[in-house]
Amino acid sequence: xxxxxxxAAAGALTLTxxxxxxxxxxxxxxxxxxxxxHYSSRRVCSTPTKGQAACFALRRTDAAAxxxxxxxxxxxxxxxxxxxxxTTPSGHTPADIQAAYKLPAQNGGGRTVAIVDAYDDPTxxxxxxxxRSQFGLPACTTANGCFTKMNQxxxxxxFPVKNGGWAQEISLDLDMVSAACPTxxxxxxxxxxxxxxxxxxxxxxxxxxxxxxxxxxxxxxSDSPDSSAYDHPGIAITASSGDGxxxxxxPAASPHVTAVGGTSLKRASNTRxxxxxxxxxxxxxCSAYISRPGFQSATVTGCSRRAVADVSAVAxxxxxxAVYDSTAYQGASGxxxxxxxxxxxxxxxxxxxxxxxxYTNAYPYTHTSSLFDVTSGSNGTCAPSQLCxxxxxxxxxxxxxxxxxxxxx
Length: 409
Known about the structure:
The protein is α/β, with parallel strands linked by helices.
């Protein structure tokens, strides 16, 4: 009885808080019989203005509300019993990511994956330690040389101002590199702001660091002409395709990056153990500015210019990933469930690092047998239909598919 009262009290407080918070995106989950499961999620970064980028992290809010209710009840009960409160992460774990994409997790060989984001996450290293400890991954710290954090000018002691939304994005990015490539080193480069000018400076800074083989960019803005900042031969550059459904974002449209779309990833009773469909929020389409790269066929994509995406990975927040972030934002902190193509971009950057050989966005196009072809789902209505509807071979929301080992990278 006492436990039920604690849960009810905690739930009432959580619902009161949730009622005051706007929900940026709502979705309806699968229907079984007469029961429909409802999901909701919200962006953690503001809509970008001209010359600015927004991060593409989406936090699942209904899962967070349930977790917070349980956390509050546990905290009340712990206070009475004088014991620590317990929490349980929701969302896909590193073991899930490695199993779903057949990743040889120990192949990282100390190669460095760089993450470029805006503003400062003051608890990045501490939160990374919590995530890796929770899932039994090796420690990745400044002290052991695995983790490095710097600003866009290369300083490791002076950082930009804190931003709670981008801090959650940073935690998502760091955790996804950890999940996909536990033996990779991680470099976090924090831009002074979310302007494309500062983010480009941060990308160039990351590319100049010894050992960096891949750079992930989980942000974007309006389709635009290309910048040389994303052209670094010998380094795999990945960029999120966006979370707004059919439509093109930059830098995903750059001909020099691997544009990463998104899927819904669910457990299944098949040989693989998982199934995937195109996520309705994944960005896709034809750039209005950037010429078609030689590795893409206009006949296949239906685009006379650059087509997005190239490959994909899990991005649907409803089937999202577990993330730990202690920098409270929008009333949420601790163990959270995230999605968005902000999750898929660092996963794919890490797969390039695991492959350890081919750091070019053209390579997957000649190695499609090492990809899971995603053939169902849609992110909108368009013509030709492959730009927004999944099908065999290439399509806009999922590109050529998702990793089936590292042979396509």
